[in-house]
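Hey, sorry to bother you again with one of my protein questions. I've been staring at a protein lately and its backbone has me curious. I owe you a coffee for this, so here goes:
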Amino acid sequence: MPPADELQGLRGLHLPPAAGSYWTDIGLAVALGLVLALCAALLFRLLARPRLSLRASAIAAFEDTLALPEDERRVAQAALLRRVVRTVAGEEDARRVGGEWAETLDRVFGSDLFTARGGRVFADGLYVRGAGDTAALDDELGALMRRLGR
């Protein structure tokens, strides 16, 4: 028997059945999200990895200088002192020479080694042979490096 209204006899429109499962789309989205999260975590770890502190890097560089012959050791230590001062006090202070350089070193390291004692060799006589007790100067420089801040 035909329905009284022809429109009621029509079935509702439906999409054809999907070729794949609904869950494969969700699984793909989850897998893609996990891969992106892993990439983001690795990138964050690479960018935010801890760097050596000024003290640790200065001590390591200072200990490397101890293996050098005396003349080369003083030059390497002078370069290290310039790098430390540049990091702590800035480029202008690191460019000083002579007595001003010795005063800057004493101010940065909080001592009188460079103006009144054996560290004066770094301000005045870097290339003078046999300038003082090298072992004592190395010990004092090592102690100053270990007292650095940061």
Helices lie at 22-47, 54-65, 70-89, 91-94, 98-109, 113-116, 134-146. DSSP finds seven helices and no strands in the chain.
